[in-house]
Structure formats: C-alpha cells, structure tokens
Design brief:
heterodimer, A: alpha+beta, Butyryl-CoA Dehydrogenase, subunit A, domain 2, Butyryl-CoA Dehydrogenase, subunit A, domain 3, 3 domains, four-stranded mixed beta sheet, four-stranded antiparallel beta sheet, 11 helices, 8 strands, B: alpha+beta, three-stranded antiparallel beta sheet, Acyl-CoA dehydrogenase (chain B), FAD (chain B), AcylCoA_DH/ox_N_sf (chain B)
Amino acid sequence: MTGAAELRSRTREFLAAHPPATTGRSEFLGARFDAGLAWVHYPAGLGGLDAARSLQAVVDAELEAAGAPDNDPRRIGIGLGMAAPTILAYGTEEQKRRFLRPLWIGEEVWCQLFSEPGAGSDLAALGTRAVRDGADGDWVVNGQKVWTSSAHIARWAILIARTDPEAPKHRGITYFLCDMTDPGVEVRPLRQITGEAEFNEVFLSDVRIPDARRLGPVGEGWKVAQTTLMNERVSIGGMRLPREGGMIGPVARTWRERPELRTHDLHQRLLTLWVEAEVARLTGERLRQQLAAGQPGPEGSGMKLGFARLNQEISGLEVELRGEEGLLYDDWTMRRPELVDFTGRDAGYRYLRSKGNSIEGGTSEVLLNIVAERVLGLPAEPRNDKDVPWKDLAR
Amino acid sequence: MSTQPDLLYSETEDDLRAAVRSLVTGRSDPAATLARAEEGSPYDDGLWQSLAAGIGAAGLLVPEELGGQGAGHREAAVVLEELGRAVTPAPYLTSSVIATETLLALGGADDEATGLLKGLAAGRSVAVLALPLSTSPEAGLPDGATVTGVADAAAADVLLVLRPDGLHAVERGDAAVQPLVPLDLTRPLASVTAPEGSGTRIADAEQARAAVRRGLLAGAGLLASEQLGIAEWCLEETVRYTRDRYQFNRPVGSFQALKHRMAQLWLDVAGARAAARNAADALATGSAEVPLAVSVAQAHCSRVAVRAAEECVQLHAGIGMTWEHPAHLYLKRAKADEIALGTPGRHKEVLAELVSLPGPR
C-alpha cells in the first residue's frame, strides 16, 4: 500500500514535471491519470496506485495548492460516480482500458439509461428489450428511457435492458455500455416544472450494441446495477459544507437584510430549520470522519433523505418570506442546462427544483424502506412479484 | 479556517462505555427502580458507588492533582449516554457534571471549594446546585431562600446555594429538603430551603454567576448525550419488539406505515449523535463555539428524545401504555429532559442572538 507521505512526494514530483501554469488542461489531466493520481484507490495503470481511498485527499490538497485544473467533476458526475466503479468491478481488461481514461479526464461524458416510464421505483420491472441478432451477433435494443440527465451531451451510456422475458424480473436483465451516437438513439428534452429541461427522454430504436460492450454476464444485469446504484447513493451529499453552506444560506441572508419581511411565525420556523440544517451538516461531517477512519457507517443512506426534506422546507419558507416577490418567478424560458444551479436562481426555482430531491436517485419512500430493512433489520413486506416470469407481471 | 470538531468515539471512550454499560445493564431493573421510587428514593447506592468510585466516572472532569481522572467532557458524555439508555437514577448530571463544573470554574481560589471537589471526584460525596432543573444557562438566577424543582437534592450531601453575596456550600442537614412529586420518577425533585447564614461562602457574587453559568452550560451540553442514549434505547427496543410481534399473520415491523416511522427516527438519532458529540467536543476543547454547539444540541436532541419515547409507546401499543413496561420511564425522562436546562425554544432564542437571526421588532 502507498502511504500519505509517499503520495505527497509523488504529487509534488508530478507537479514539478507538469507545472499547471504552463501545461494545457487536457494534457495535464491525461498526465495526471497516467501518473496514477486521478483516483488513487483505482489499480495502477487505470488512473490509480492501489492506495487507500481516503488518501485521495492528500493528492487533492497538493494539487489545489498548486492551482492545478480539475476534471470538472460535477459535469461528469454520472461517469465518475456510477459508470466508472461499475466498469471497474465488472469490466473486461479491454473495457477498463478503453473507457476509464477518457471518462476521468472528461473527454467522454456518460449518462445513465435505467429508469423507464413504466419502471420507476420498481426499476427491475423495466421493459426495454435487447435481443441477440444470431448466436454471436450484436444485441439489438428497443425501448424508452426517461429522466436521463446529460443525455444530450453524453458520448456513452450505461444501459440495462431485458434479455429474458421468461425469467423472473430480477434475473432476465443484462447490463450494456451503449454508444449514444448510434443512429437509433434519439434524445428529446423533457421539460420540468421549473420550465427548463435538465433531463431527457431517450428513445432506442434498433440500436446495435456489439457483445464486446456487454458488462458482466448475460442475465446478471441486476446484480451489476446494484454496484452502480450503491455508488450513486454514496456520492450524493458527500461534500463538506461550511455553516449555512446549503439552502439555509440564502434565506438567512434575506432575513438579515430585510427586517420588514420578518414575522413571528416565520421566525420560529426559520430557527427550527436553521438548527436542522446545522445538525445535517454535522451529521455529514461525522460521516466523512467515519469514512476517513475506515469505519463507514450506515449514516450515508440517510443523508439524502434528510437533505431532500430540508431543501424542500427551507425553499418553501424562502418563497413565503419574500411575500409579494414570492409571487414572481425569475424565468420560465425553456433551457437545457448542463448543471443544476441552485444558488444562481431565485427562491421560486429552488422551491420547484428541490421537489425533485425526494424523487431522483430513489424516492424518499423507497429509501426509508432501505434504511428500515438494511440498517434496522426490519422484515420486508410480503411480495408477489419475485418469482413470477417478467412477461406475466401486471402492467 | 477553524479546525473540525472530532465527532467520533475514541478507543478509550469505547472502553469506558463498555464498562458503564456492563455495570448499569447488570444492575438495571426497571421494576425494582419503580418500587424504590414509590417508596421515596429510586437510587441504587451500590450502583452509584461502583460508577462514581469504582469506575471513577465521578472524577472524569476533575484534574488528577485533585483526585480526578483528568479526562473530560467527551468521556463524561459517554457515561451519560449509557445512563440515558438505562434511565438510571443517579446524580451524575447534577453532581458529577453541573456541580463539579461549577466548582472547577472557581479556579481553585477557595480551599473549601477545592476540598469539596476532591470529595466529589472520589465519589465520597454528592453535591447539587440549588437551582430549578429547568434553569437555562442564559436565564436569570433566583436568589431567594427557597428554591423549587431542585434535581437530586435528596441524594446530595452538600447543596450549592446562590445568595445575593455569592455561592455557599450548605450541608444538607442544615437545609430543609422537601420532596416533590416528579413527572420523571427516576430523577427526584425537591424544594430546598437553606436558612440565611447557613453554610460556607465559596465564591463572591460575580465569580458565582460566571461559575454557575459555566456549570449549567456544561450540563446542558452533556444532557444532549443523555437524550441521545434515551432515543437510542427507544428506537432499538421498538425495532426489536415490532420484529417479534405478529399481527395479521406477519411481524408488525414489516408494515411500511411502521417501518417508515422507525427509519425516520433512525435519521433523527444519527443527527442527535452528531450534535451531541459536537457539543461534548466543544466543551472538551474549550472552543469559542461552546454556547452555539450547546444550544444546537439541546434544540435538536430534546425533541428527538421525546419523539423517540413517544414513538416507542405508540409502536408498542397496548403494552407500551402499561406501568409494567419500562417505556413510560423513558417517556417521562425524555419529557422532563426537554424542560431541563432550557427548553428547545429557549435554546433557539439563544441561537437567534448568536447567529444574528433576530425576530420581528
């Protein structure tokens, strides 16, 4: 294992050889990947050094101090947080070498083709079909996916599709890496309650995927997808925030600057939410300390639940606090943003966008079930869908 | 940039927890506690001796040169988590935290106070501040001859009495201690009358106010850990019960309507743990953020403990409503703790001031 001291000196040597001031951004990022300083817990040769995950902070601190460019992690979040760990866990050597480097340096953006109009919380019920063209041929995919962020800028997608309708739903799914430039892929913006279209619908019509871009064995796609989904939940809520760093910040500022808006009722509610926001911040900090100490706690599965509710309540209070101005909205123009921008917009936008926080990445209702069953060990509800062939399920 | 608080438990703290848990769960018997309470005193003297002197928990806040353990608030917080988990009737919060911290804040200027501190640290004696349990650290302090709602006065050898001229140590035998009927049977309350001129003055008025405020602040901060312990027990016991209890041919804990309530409670308890650790760590390191950390912890943990105890009663349903099942001991302790050392509302008022979020004019 590589230790902190060694990583620090490696990073310094790397910076000396590639001074950020005089090295182009993509050249710098490529060299950083090749030096194993991209994600140190990945294997050597794939952007890492087989080091402990917590040691990435050592590298990042050195790079930040030197003013090095980053790979714009928010723009390529799905690639970094979901596609990469899944490819690492299940990919062939060839797949890992082909995909991880352009993914990490941001040359190729990834999106996720999982949810469907008929398969939301019950993702395993998905109906997009992948049929093999002959025994050794390509897979031919037909179906519709939805809630796909970044689809309009993505070069690749992680895709799950049904390959065996006769099997029970969890057992007939296969995982693929889908080329978004295939002529059968059509991306249409999906306009949201905010007026903009952060997400897309993706229509797949006779999309051909070579078998070499299947990830994991045929029929094991559900298991592979668990790796993806687990990493999604880990990556949500992972940032360290200063006090008032979240949504409470703008409300607190408005409160301080606009005494004429204050009422007793709003005051009590604001203080309650301020305390909850501070406690959520501390809970996140405690989780980070546990991870750094190598004692990952189950708190991670709860962070998203807490933030969803808090964001909604705080932004709701903010709209109400603004009174007459709360009746207005900054802009309903249809746009296709690359990133969600909570702070650059008005309270009304925050209120509407945060409604999605309890839906995206698993609804709060499903997450509460996960906490109850996996953390507290409570029994599952009786089910009648697990052993039935997919084709016979009610829909 | 300010340094981050340490929100984890150290190995030493884990060991201390194990020792306290083994002691209190080994001797904890809710039925016996209730029987003793109805006879007038819920305390188990043997348990207190083992905790205070045996494990040395009474001296955690006290430096070694005064016969203490030279540990700190983080360790005392762990003891309180365990005492909360077992709703143990013991004058730990009142004597080993609040009175001890008050005496420590006097800075060793007074020999009488130092002697008293040594006795407390060794577990030889028990002292409580003669103030209502509901007093918040920021509240104005009473200085009349009679004070009501004093917690654990019945267990005390010495009462620390505030008078206009300062703080006085009064032998319990020199004061009138009149028991009250408390909501929380595991933390007895009394009204205390210390006659004018009784006891020894250990601090002048100005020193006394500052020291008492410091004692109450430490008490409020570490009370959050007791509340965390209460909430943890209530959640764990409710999960255990609903897993084993069958109705409609299935465990009642498999119904989403119940599962979601327990999962939500788990989230709140995770928050309470972070807030309570933060307060204990701030007290231990003497951070400038102590008042903020304490009020955040109190505003949050008070509510979480009450809700956990209320959910515990409701999800146990019929059996949770009985005198026989211990759930009511937790409910009563949690509700009393909500008022103790400042209600959540009081602490939010303090925060409004501290973080500049004033109310309407």
